[in-house]
Amino acid sequence: MDDFKIIDGSITSPKGFKASGVYIGLKKSKKDMSLVVSDVLADVAGVFTTNKVCAAPILVSKKNIANGKAQAIIINSGNANACTGEKGYENVITTMNKTAKELDISSEDVIMASTGVIGVPLPMDIVIPGVKKAVGALSYDGGQSAAEGIITTDTYIKKVAISLEIDGKEVIIAGMAKGSGMIEPNMATMLSFITTDAKVDGKFLQQLLKDTSDKTYNMITVDGDTSTNDMVCVMANGMAENNIINAKHPEVKKFIDAFYYINEYMAKLIVQDGEGATKFIEVEVVNGKTQEDARKVAKSILNSNLVKTAFFGEDGNWGRIICSIGYSKADFVVEEIEVFLGIEDNMIKIVEKGGSTGFDEKVMDEILKEKNLKILVDLKAGSETAKGWGCDLSYDYVKINGSYRS
């Protein structure tokens, strides 16, 4: 973090971005429509859900970012507009057209994201006047409201902003996200939006977003479900007036590190707010034969319901952990790996040579009362590493999802 600093900001902290978050009636009472707009046409990059059951706003937004340019993102919560057929697709087009008309920009430069209940058509009699309301509320100080307008079962808003210097110019990168359940990205019921006033090459930005997403959003899990509506989108409007950032820029690493920090920070916030979660779990895998092997092991542990419930019960059941490593399909020798469990400054070796180390159960019981826990796996098969983040599985998760529509 030596090259950048966290600032008290929001999605509108970078130069030339306005935003709003308003209540239009899609939800019972809370804000349910947000809008983010750049003063100028921006370079844009996006990554989207891998679910074949893909929501209408994803399908249209993919087309609209194909040219690498965008100026506005309209987001509604309370209705996913997924599995709504041709009418759902048409409703996205209508909403984008209305947004473009109100902003006096091209509809091809508008992106739309939706989150909420699947299979329910968008009530356009509410959405269309809602767009006008969102445009009317736009403000350079509207980032907080915008972050409030995108959440569903989230218990708090998720936003972050950082400042750094590139070519002697102050550059700001900011983000906001939502996500609490149906989280197992590639990606998840997870929306994340990043703005920056940096001038960035469009192709470089797209590759950077993909690489960063693979290491952040695609390494988190709450419940193993991949949503129909995931989206991560970044707009870079160039108003910081730095020299264009690409792979050859002398300060490119500084920008990459800051960009990674923003996205890892928001990914962690999503997991920490996992529906019903009482524990935040980081899994670090070292010395994998390949990075893919390391990733497989991390995600296999984090996705195991038996591991999750053991953490909820504060039970140091190392057998569940070694079992989940075993079915990860990674390449390793069981008798060589080591597994540690604990907190950052107190890690206890729980597995060695394929079996228990005979650790002190009373010490482990005390450690497992902590909210933030870590598993470290040494595969002793190579030099590749990976990190992933997840949470436990509690009674409240079932309660929340058993009555999601009520």
Defining traits:
single chain; 406 residues; alpha+beta; L-amino peptidase D-ALA esterase/amidase; Ubiquitin-like (UB roll); nine-stranded mixed sheet; 11 helices; 29% strand; globular
Description:
- This protein has helices at residues 56-64, 85-103, 124-136, 143-149, 202-215, 252-272, 291-303, 305-312, 318-326, 361-367, 395-402, and strands at 4-7, 17-22, 33-48, 69-79, 110-117, 158-166, 169-178, 191-196, 220-221, 231-236, 280-288, 338-343, 346-352, 355-356, 372-378, 384-391.
- With 406 residues, the chain is an alpha+beta fold.
- It folds into two domains: 4-272, 4-Layer Sandwich (L-amino peptidase D-ALA esterase/amidase); 280-402, Roll (Ubiquitin-like (UB roll)), CATH 3.10.20.
- α2 runs parallel beside α3.
- The model is unreliable at 181-188 (pLDDT under 50).
